[in-house]
Records
---
Amino acid sequence: MTDPSVKADSDISGKPTSVSRTTLSHIMTLNDTNLLGTVHGGVIMKLVDDAAGAVAGRHSEGPAVTASMDEMAFLEPVRVGDLVHVQAQVNWTGRTSMEIGVRVIAERWNESTPATHVGSAYLVFTAVDADGRPRRLPPVLPETDRDRRRYQEAQIRRTHRLARRQEILELRERRSADGFDD
């Protein structure tokens, strides 16, 4: 018997990539720095998760939770006084989960120099209902060649995530059978 509260796939319309795309901006202060005087990576990761969460909530039209963060790359240091822009969009959707791509750029607040790409990350979010159980979400509809490329790359990352998880589970099972405890 089908649960009437769960929409069938045909009842959920897709959403274009641009509908939930967002940018969050924040000026970095002394409170954001680490012992080296640059902005702490955790501060950047929090901004990344905030932007991705906003996109996930918009796309899924409700609550969504962070399931994983992949490939957080810090490319350049961020300094006090930098204006950081965190740009996020849905790259791919499955039945209940979605990959959000995030690009972090920084620019000096008081200079007209070009902005610098300082970081990138990919996060997986799961849409959840009021009880915290996964729920269906609308498919993403890539609009541009760049969106289609990002969609295809996200599928590759998903395949790798699933394969890695399966290999780890198999290794643990073999080790357990051999009498090793993890």
---
Amino acid sequence: MAVAIPAQGQLRRDALVQPVGDTRSGEALIGAGVSRTANADFPLAGLGGDLTAFPELHAAWAVGPRIVFELKGAARKTLSIERRDSVSSVDLDPSLAGGTSRDVGDFELAVSFAPIGRATGFSAGGHLGVKLPNSDETRGIGLNTTDITIAALVSWGSARWRATGWFGVGILEAPIDVFEQNDAFAYAFEGQWDATPNWRLSVGTRGRASTRRVSPLGTGDLGEVRATVEWRRRPLAIDVGLGHGTTPLSGDWNLRAGVAWTLAGNRQAAHPPPTGTRRHHPREETS
């Protein structure tokens, strides 16, 4: 990770699913962006409105050819309050009476791995994610809970396209019910296609579906479908995405954009010497 030499750029900023099977060992990515969600809903606080997240940060590191660590979240979120319910399940900060709420967003730490298969073709492994409780529930935006995702990961692709997804369980902490959790079905899927050496298109969906008839407040269904266009000129990448919520709690349209910088990994591992190359011995040069 020490030298920023040109990389293949397989890691992606704000990817729904990182393409684990074809990452280069040691490759890393640092990205930042902004997003705007229309008609976001926060039932715990009884608030709704347009939500802006800036800056959204994303760091990914391929610690091995088939293992990727990620840390992503919003350093700042701003909610323009357009709707208030008559009753809130938490005691809200008095400053929200001004019509705006600002708070740090929740960050997620995740690892994805695919030890089975090859870089092209089929590969399989697992995904483990932990959402950290960074937000303050009195600000109305976050839940201040810890959620865990455990899933199986599968992938299939070639040199120009790849489809990757994980499917498993999300263990969701109930925000206001002591010793209560909701085990939901968690999923993510994304297909990407390298249309040209500089342009990449991707379409995918991510969300969760509660396994209960009545979900504890704050653990309801979430989902989004998203299309993203990425332009890259190694090691720089710029992306623009458009998403749409698929559940009542997911908000309506979401527009996001960002930039990322890729740091290449082991140059020798990425460019091994040709097979059969003869290495000279010092004694041969002096004889």
---
Amino acid sequence: MRENFAKLMARFPVPSGVRTSETTLAGRSAVRVDPEGEIRPGTILYFHGGSFALGSPQTAMGLTASLVVRTGMTSMSLDYRLAPEHPFPAGLDDCLAAYKELLDHGADPATIAFAGDSAGGGLSVTTTLATRKAGLPLPGAVVAFSPGLDHTRSGRTMESKKGVDPFFTREGMAYTGGMYLDGQDPNQELIAPAVLADMTGFPPLLLQVGTNELLLDDSVRLAERARDADVDVILDVTARVPHVFQSFIGQLDEADHALDRAALFLTQHLTVQ
């Protein structure tokens, strides 16, 4: 599955205009992505997708590089641990540890954004919740592309978008979800934030999702929870596009436009002294 996923993601374009280098964060491999030109202050801590069991910084490089090119900021893309070898909360713990290392090295939290796609979009949200629980200062902004936010799979679109979503089925999600949960109860804030998260004090949040997704309601419900908690939230829904449509860089106008909006959100919300 990992090999096939890597081959699939290698088909998506990676924009030019960036430099990449291997590094580590909190003992985990990571890829640093810098713009070739002037570097704007700010750091995007990126979490790749892959159903919590697949993927790497390389499989998400198109998205990571696109944000770097558009914002002029540096990104650190983390190779967090994957299920089934490392079920919940191992990957989440890695994401939190990576953020803590950035803070320990003097980074201003207001200049850091969490961003991710699919499972990584879910991690951008749950890492923020874990950050608050750990008593650490929250990042300046959160961006989530088609995030997975509910392992109870109770969203209405899990049924209404059945056969419309070209990538996912409920059965397939149950298979990889079982790897991630490893028998644990999904009714937890850090596993089903769309259902259970307390969004009080959350930083500005951008959720981008397509209407052709089983996971559409994950974003819709989290946005409602954020709204009810007086959080600055944008629910950005694009019609007739699939899961993580932003990957179709240069192929779908909707992908490029969505990435433009995400970059604008980041540059508006990251406070640089």
---
Amino acid sequence: MSSDGRVGATQQQMLAELRRKMAAVPGRGESAVERVPDAAGSGREVLPVPAALAALLPDGGLAKGSVIAYTGARSLLAGMLAAVTAAGGHAAVVGVPRFGLLAAAEMGADLERLAVVADPGPDPLEIASVLLDGLDLVVLGLDGGSVAPARARVLAARARNKGATLVVADGAWPHPALRIDARIAGYVGLGTGHGRLHSLTLEVEVRGKAGVPGRGHLDLRPTADRVRWFTRPADSGDTELFRARGAAS
């Protein structure tokens, strides 16, 4: 068998196994995920996000059936997955080989409800398509690649028809419903004594297809029971805040 044939066979085996697992996942109607109507009163349902991020999103959460383009720090992606799985939903991360499972767990993620496909093979979009059949949230890493408009329309239609939310990270996706960019703005604690990180600040921008972009700063801090997100007041100053623009989490 040629190398291409072996790769194709492996991909088909992975797809068959994923379909088997999707059949065993409880239906979304039975899921404990909180779904909140949007502020406009249209009844649009959303998946929960960390409360600090919700204030920046036009629907207060991740709209079901939508595609969201994400760039920047992976820590906020971990926060989104934690919020969904902690509320009883099912999620997956595809094509993000160094995704921080420990970070997600520290934010409250239920790892039994989170699948990780670090190496999706030559066609990660096909893997994501299968996962959209049974999960509430799928995060798809594009590794700097781009998706052709025709293929993007097919996958977006699948997400919409299945009532699932697709977040595409680190790549080009044509005409997403929402764009979220999260960049590290600074941190507190490293090098100030014990070398421990007390908080991480992200500068977040949210852009929809219309309207003024939402912008804000979010702090990630350890608390007594877990690591949590907080909204940083616009006028808050901290002489210990170290600038780290352009860094990755």
